[in-house]
Amino acid sequence: MKRVIRSFLRYLARRKSLAILQLLGIAFGVAAAVGMTLASRSALDSMENAVDFLRGGSTHTIKRPAGPMEEGLLQKIVDDPSIKFFAPVIDRKVRLASGGEVRLLGLDPFLDKNVRSITTQIASAANSAGREKILQSFLLDPRTVIIDENVARAGNIAAGQDLMTMQGPLKVVQVFSNPSGEPLVIMDIGNAQEFFRMAGHIDRADLVVNDEEGLRQRWSRGFIIESNQQKAQTLSALLGAFKLNLQALSLLALFVGIFLIYNTAMFTVVSRRRDAGILLSIGASRGQVTLAFLVEVLLFGITGGALGGIMGYFLSKFLVQIVGGTISTLYFFLRPSALPWTFWNIAGGILLGSAASIVGSLPPLLELRRIQPVQVLRGRTASRRAGRRTKIVGLAGLFCLALALVLFLLSFLNVYIGFAGAFAFLLGASLFSGFVIIIAVPFLKRLFSSVIGLTGKIAIGNIRENLGRTSVAVAAFMIALSMSIGLASMIDSFRHSLIWWMNGQLRGEAYISTKADVTVPEEVYDELKKIPGIGGIDVFRNVQITFRDRPAGITSIDSAVLQKYARFGWLSGSDRAWEDVKRGDVIISESFSLRFKVKAGDRITIDTAQGPSTLRIAGVYYDYASEHGVIMMDRSLYLKLFNDRTINSLGIFIDGPELEKGRILDKARQLSLKYGLPFATREQFHRRILGIFDSTFAVTQSMRIIAVIVAFFGIAGALMTLFVERQKEFGIYRALGFTTGDVAKITIAESIGLGLISFFMSTVVGTIFAFILIRVINRQSFNWTIFYHLTPQPYLVTFLTAIAASIAACAYPVWSVIRKYPIMQIREE
Amino acid sequence: MGGWFYVKICCFIVFLVIVPGLCAGEWKQADGERRWSFPADHGSHGEYRTEWWYFTGNLGDASGKKYGYQLTFFRHSLRERPRDPNNPWSVRDVYLAHYAITDASNNTFHYTDRASRKGPGLAGADAHKMNVNVLGWSAAMDKNTIRLKAYFEGMELKLDLTPQKPPVLHGRHGLSKKGPLPGQASYYYSFTDLKTTGYLKRPGMKNQVAVTGTSWFDQEFGSNQLSGDQAGWDWFALHLSDGRDLMIYKLRKKDGSIEKESAGTLVEPDGTSRQINLSGIEMTVLAYWKSQKTGGRYPAGWRIRIPSAGVDVTVKPLVANQELANTVSAGITYWEGAVDGAGTSNGKSIKAQGYVELTGYAGTIGGTF
User: Fold this and answer.
1) Which residues of A touch B152 (CB under 8 A)?
2) Which residues of chain B make contact with A71, given a CB cutoff of 8 A?
3) Residue numbers of B between 89 and 148 with CB closer than 8 Å to A
4) A216 and A257 belong to one structural domain
């Protein structure tokens, strides 16, 4: 037995490069799956840590349903018997002069120390004289702050220096340590009120509560009380769609990875049929040979899996940065750190690598059990039964596609059913590869023979002859290429939908402050109104609320201005809805409508500062601003319901001629400069949104690149195995009078032929995959409609990838043909 | 007296101190005779930098169980005027409060404290009447009754205090010297005998219990601090059962000697009082108690004799552990507790009860905030 295994393993030493390629194939497959899984897990883990740090010991939070809360309410909080401790908080963002935003918390050191540890760090490190100075300055001097080490490092600022913001310099008196990683600036609450021009108000109070029920009873009208658990749920719900996205990508990575390993393992076995035949003919039993195969496959699985586990760990370090960046851009600050290294990375990799390897080696092993040694040794290894098997496999493919269809029809139940459908579809499509080869070969034969003559014809013939192998290679390559096309088409379509939406909704000539978190003082609005020539100003306010226990948004706008200037895309209702909005109705975004299953004409009840309030829905509009859904209302109604005068952004609309516009915009720009507010023309604003969009899809893009790399190794491994297996044939070609160049040509042509078949197949499969992503996955997880938009670019890129990968994959075999075959193979024949 | 200690506590709370002149501003000094006017002088004296309202009391319930309480309010100015008078968060004063309940029947002692700036109604003290509050704990005088209120985590106190004697002015017509230099003094008066009724609850009790007893109230204000060579002090406020009340403070210097200006006041049943100089006070420590928590070793029993007044009493703590440690003012530790005992006054046997404050026994007042 041992001898059988040893003879098997000796082969590996002889075919070092092939062994390495197979090993890398498995390793890359495992790395893709492990890397993506680890990255998404560490991103979500660090979310909890970040929340923990700022929460401190607080158990609840009390705030108004929207906007800041009157500070006088703190007196009532003092007297509430269920509240053990409380700490008022101003929680805003400030724009730095160097660009970017940073979170600024206004805290009261006296009250806050009962809740969290940040302010107790004030002056903790200084000596006693220095400490007194720092603390006194923090409390008594306006614009004095302490900053955390992240802000200090990013801006290269030490204590005693100034932190430059768009609203002027802030004096830094101390740098404190902050384990959460979120850049923080802390200011005394009184100074923060002044800085943000919100006299008499705070954003919320963090509480330590010992009787939740009593508290909720006393504060039921006009307040939102959130427990930590609810807050975590809200955050988690905010990330819901994004999490799904990550999971989908992890699953895709896993799918592609497994497919690649399967493919590699299969080729490993197939390429050893001859050795198996020899062993059988000299008396080894089938059981011994099968076991020897399994040992080899497992050896590959374990080594490749371990290697993949390590590679996946490093890949996750890279991916986690991208994921963190995206979450920070779209939702809330998160700087996830990669999970620490554990032995389980290797263990998981090994498990994945060997399991997928065994699955991959099963079909050829089963075949091996049936074949006669003589048949194997006869020389040509292509099986004539491949044609019939292709039909059976095709039928299985049809079954998979039918299953996918059923799953799509049921996907409204749960988005995971949609995922399952997508995988069923990809699997089903891959099973058609043999079928497609049979159909494509005659056309390709004609094409190749007309371009490079006989060698081309022979090359394509080989593809058909070795259907059992080539179909698997094409399937793996095609899946990877389809993913690339599908993801790219989905992103392009989304991008176009977004541009269409921006052009309709964001038509202002310019915007003062576009970030939702930097507020605009009302004086700016008042002064802006005085500039002659402005046709209309849209006063924009956006707040996050909780509707039916899930996060949603309320946006208040000036409906008269938008009616005149904006061109909303309506799902139901029309521009006439603006009249209703002026009268006190609301319009809702598509995502809100789908998420909460409400439609135009329905009534919804929301919590306001005045208690519950019921509103009629006048229309549903297309929107990509928030996947959680938006209720849009006129500012007059918003002020009435929420008593919140905060302004996030001002949209400026101008009627006059171009020349006049420039002059007016200059004035508006100066005004926003005066108040340290960001100013953006429409073009700049749109560009910024697209920038955010693109960064959002950074993970998806990385996944695409990984898919291509995996595809490359897949096809390279498969082709190399094919060629190694058929070394003898090259000798025969030479004997028949073909030159070494011809043999090389055959090899290249065969490789390109496989690449072309894979590419053509992926154009169809990839496009359908894009539709699935848009219509099923995206709609289910984000609740918005993306309009499919055909762009040639993804197809072109994929085509070039396919050709490049095919050529690169056959480079080594061609090189060895040129180097070795003239001598060696003829001698053998 | 106890309030002086607060100067330092509070200074650590608000992180200033000891270095005079860090805060710009000219506060009035306690350096001359004062024209007192009650009840207006029960209010806050904002022109002085520090001030406190200090309540301690010995109570009992219907079943004869003995309790003690301490509820003290403190004001410390950081600057003469807030930078922005329209913004209530703009700091002028910082208010602090300590709160403790002693239950002799089960040998327990609970304490807590809190601090706040004035803020939007979070803390403050009225100028012309007693109405001081720190985050819901309050002392307010209504006609002739002082109402105390404090709630926190099972510690509940709601008491009405009625003075049985007029205010007692300590030192020289209320000017109480704390050191040899001018300004090392404060204005200091007391209600030494306050008839007390109300309710009390300590953690672990199901319901509030009705209590009655006697309380002691000190109010003190000034602008200067103790001299740097003082290590701590012992302060006694005792009610004798013949109707006399006795206050003594002894300032201990770092070199082991006692500050010459240390003194006391004896109040007669009719409310008349006289100052007793250090030389007229004889005190022997009878026992010690060592804190497991802080390692501080405190005196825990005294024989006090005032020969000129015919007083000879022996008192000891109701509960050994009445040490306040690791409060808001972390790192600052002191012992403040209910005591009782017996002795003679003018030759007659009497019982005695009251409060004692001991500072500077668990390391010097330092450490980090």
Assistant:
1) 84
2) 88-89, 119-120
3) 89-91, 94, 115-117, 119-122, 135-136
4) no
Do the beta carbons of residue A580 and residue A618 sit within 8 Å?
yes
Which of residues A626, A653, A677 is at a domain's end? Answer: A677
Residue spans of alpha helices (H) in A506-582? 522-530, 559-565, 577-582
Answer yes or no: do A85 and A217 share one domain: yes
For an interface test with A, the pick among B8, B77, B80, B89 (most A C-beta atoms closer than 10 Å) comes out as: B89
d(CA A190, CA A185): 15
Residues A810 and A751 in one domain: yes
Say yes or no: A546 and A612 in one domain. Answer: yes
User: What tokens does B156 get?
Assistant: 């509940």
Residue A430 lies inside a defined structural domain of this protein: no
The tens digit of pLDDT for each residue in B258-276 reads 888 889 999 999 999 999 9
Residues A354 and A312 in one domain: yes
Instruction: Give the residue from A360, A376, A392 where a domain finishes.
Output: A376
Distance, in Å, from the CA atom of A207 to the CA atom of A56, rounded to the nearest integer, reads 10
The whole-angstrom separation of Cα A50 and Cα A59 is: 16
- CB neighbour burial string for A176-204, b if at least 16 within 10 angstroms, e if fewer: bebebbbbbbbbbbbbbbbbbebeebbbb
| Domains and their CATH numbers in chain B | 2-19+38-359 (2.40.370.10)
Q: In this complex, which of B90, B328, B368 lies closest to A124 when CB atoms are compared?
A: B368
Chain A residues with CB-CB distance to B13 below 8 A: 110
Same domain, A673 and A698: no
pLDDT, tens digit (0-9, with 9 covering 90-100), for B177-192: 887 777 788 899 999 9
Q: A625 and A521, same structural domain?
A: yes
Taking only the tens place, the pLDDT of each residue in A74-117 is 999 999 989 999 999 999 888 888 877 889 999 999 999 888 88
Give me the percent of chain A exceeding a pLDDT of 90.
29
Is the Cβ pair B78, A193 closer than 8 Å?
no
Q: Which of A122, A123, A129 sits opposite B19 (nearest CB)?
A: A129
B225 to chain A: which residues are within 8 Å by CB? none
Q: Taking the C-alpha atoms of A241, A246, A248 and A252 in order, what is their torsion angle to the nearest 10 degrees?
A: 160
> What range does the domain containing A607 cover?
515-677
Among B81, B122, B133, B208, pick the best mutation site for testing chain A contact (most A Cβ within 10 A). Answer: B122
Q: Which residue has the tokens 């990575």?
A: A253
Q: Which of A335-339, A482-486, B145-149, B210-214 has the lowest mean pLDDT?
A: A335-339
Establish if B78 touches chain A: CB-CB under 8 angstroms.
Answer: yes
Is A231 a member of any domain? Answer: no
Chain A CA closest to residue B117: A110
Provide the number of structural domains found in chain A: 4
pTM over 0.80: no
Distance from CA of B326 to the nearest CA of A (A): 13
A734 is a domain residue: yes
Same domain, A810 and A664: no
A809 pLDDT more than 60 = yes
Q: Cβ–Cβ of B121/A75 closer than 8 Å?
A: yes
In a domain, A617, yes or no: yes
